[in-house]
Amino acid sequence: MTKDDHLIEFLTRLQGCGDYDSSWRLFTQVVAELGFTQNALCLFIPGEILDESANIVLTNYHPDFVAAYEEQGGLQNDSTLQWITSTDQILYWSDPENLTLVRKKHLPIEELSQDFNILNGASFPLKTRYSGSIHCIGLSATDSRKNEYERDVKRNLDLAIAMSRLLEMHLYQFELHQMLEDEAAYSEMQPLHPLEQETIRWLSNGYSIKEVADKKMFKSIESINLYIKKAKQKLQVRTRDQLIARAVLLGLV
After folding, report:
1. What's the pLDDT tens digit per position in 169-217?
2. What's the order of all strands across the beta sheet hosting 38-44?
3. What was the pLDDT predicted at 204?
4. Is-above-0.70 flag for pTM?
5. Could you write out the DSSP letters of every residue in 149-165?
6. Which of 28, 62, 115, 129 shows its CA 20 to 30 Å from the CA of 170?
7. 82, 134, 250 from 122: Cα distances, Å
8. Is 115 exposed, middle or buried (0-12, 13-18, 19+ CB in 10 A)?
9. What pLDDT score was predicted for residue 6?
10. In the chain, what are the domain boundaries?
11. Residue segments in the chain with a per-residue pLDDT below the cut of 50
């Protein structure tokens, strides 16, 4: 089957997906068949609210990795993500150039990636409908050895990137409807408590849980974690980054 045949088949199946989650599930299933077993879709929203920060919107990385990644500063301390958003180019993780990008503040993320064997893959930016915002996709051949990746997986990278761009175009029809203006979907969610909203607002401005607890809200860390847990349940998300992204996109903070 040619590259075009693969893309036509993927697009046909994608058109049968009617929301974000089903579209992402199909995408991750298809690119996993190409060797990219764990992936992430990130959203950068420049501006006053997020102060040039970014959030993981969708991912099938292991929850332990996502939690540790967030604790280490997440996308703000990820050299790969910082580079591609400033250059608007693809970064191939296994290339020696990637090592030259690493600074001291990036080392915890680099070490975490090594611990979870997330070493072979690529990251690249995608344009969105939002003015000034950027989607970024990371394709990871998690647990692959470098020689296996170079021999068996990397040859599929161009196809996986092309599928990523089709996914991005497909998601356009849902972004505003489902994440910004879908009152029906939002009405099914429980409203956030003012303390939950305040917690998310401080987190979205880059403060750690400890800083929010000790310096901003003068609550215990346990209380702040409880606000986050309840807010995740209400907004139907799994990670802190997803919580911030959805709250911002819904205009809740």
Report:
1. 887 777 544 544 443 344 456 788 889 999 998 988 888 899 999 999 9
2. 54-59, 38-44, 134-140, 121-127, 91-92
3. 84
4. no
5. IIIIIGGGHHHHHHHHH
6. 62
7. 13, 16, 30
8. exposed
9. 92
10. 3-178, 183-249
11. 47-53, 129-131, 176-177, 179-187
Backbone angles phi, psi at 214, to 5 degrees: -85, -35
Predicted pLDDT of residue 188: 56
Tokens of residue 89, six digits: 């180019």
Query: What gap in Å lies between CA 22 and CA 42, rounded to an integer?
Result: 17
CATH of 3-178, one of 3.40.50.300, 3.40.50.2300, 3.40.50.1000, 3.30.450.80: 3.30.450.80
DSSP for 66-123?
Answer: HHHHHHTTGGGG-HHHHHHHHH-S-EETTSTHHHHT--GGGHHHHHHHHHTT--SEEE
For residue 27, which amino acid is it?
A: F
Cα separation, 238 vs 232, whole angstroms: 6
Cβ atoms of 240 and 225 closer than 8 Å: no
Q: Give me 19's structure tokens.
A: 């929301």
Query: What pLDDT, on a 0 to 100 scale, did the predictor assign at position 51?
Result: 40
What pLDDT does 52 receive?
A: 42
Which numeric CATH code is attached to 183-249?
Answer: 1.10.10.10
Q: How far apart are CA 83 and CA 55, in angstroms?
A: 16
Contact criterion met (CB below 8 Å) for 55 and 242: yes
